[in-house]
Amino acid sequence: QVQLVESGGGLVQPGGSLRLSCAASRRTFSSYVMGWFRQAPGKEREFVSAISWTYGRTLYADSVKGRFTISRDNAKNTVYLQMNSLKPEDTAVYYCAVDQSLGIRTAPLGYDYWGQGTQVTVSS
Description:
The protein is 0% helix and 47% strand. With 124 residues, the protein is mostly beta strands.
């Protein structure tokens, strides 16, 4: 069983930046993916970005590509999401999740463990 704890959310002005972090309680799997999803009120949970823990490969949603950067700290077993040039449409609850699959998947149902979420609000 893996526990995930997100942090770093908050209120930021359009064009600003935030860095989200997600710390996993422990390593359990031989290989896995850690990803970020977001969900706005009335919207489906959507894929944002993910990183393969084993190989370091990354994937980004088109909506955030070029603005967001996902990274990892192996020693801390933590994944980060650096969000730059934030837009109001980025406002959502951001969740980190772990997928035990070999490759990166974008469907939330494929992910086995989820954090509690952290609110990101982009507004003037």
